[in-house]
Design goal:
Layout (H helix, E strand, L loop, with lengths): L8 E4 L7 H8 L5 E2 L3 H8 L23 H11 L1 E3 L6 E6 L5 E5 L3 E3 L4 E3 L8
Antiparallel strand pairs: 1-5, 2-3, 3-4, 4-5, 6-7
Helix pairs in contact: 1-2, 2-3
Length: 126
């Protein structure tokens, strides 16, 4: 895989639906993730409740399998930092309006005008 550039990258597309968090937890190299607990990723890796997973054990305090799946995913979206092992650029996750998950450079800022994240060095001062 080529090193990531300092730009926005589509990481997981919405075609995976409710399994996007599971795919993230299973397919992303753990050594590239910081800001979240390994237990959170382990929990997401089991998938949502009602899935056909072999491991249907409950987490501590759960009353049904996958009870905290979406809450855990939101915590990961809000806190995870991914570091590309080749370029060493750091990215955060962004859940786009289309449902795709994007990697956004950690120092980029939201622009209401552009309706996306932008490199702050490209913003003009008014």
């Amino acid at each position: 895989m080529k090193p990531l550039t300092k730009s926005i990258h589509c990481y997981l597309d919405s075609a995976s639906g409710q399994y996007i968090p599971k795919r993230f937890a299973l397919e992303t190299r753990r050594e590239c993730i910081s800001g979240v607990k390994p237990e959170q990723l382990d929990y997401l890796a089991k998938g949502p409740g009602g899935s056909l997973d072999e491991d249907t054990s409950l987490a501590d305090g759960e009353s049904e399998r996958g009870e905290w799946y979406w809450d855990t995913w939101q915590t990961v979206l809000d806190n995870a930092i991914l570091t590309d092992p080749e370029s060493r650029f750091q990215f955060r996750l962004w859940n786009g309006e289309c449902g795709d998950i994007f990697l956004v450079p950690i120092d980029w800022e939201w622009s209401d005008e552009a309706n996306t994240f932008v490199d702050p060095s490209t913003l003009s001062e008014d």
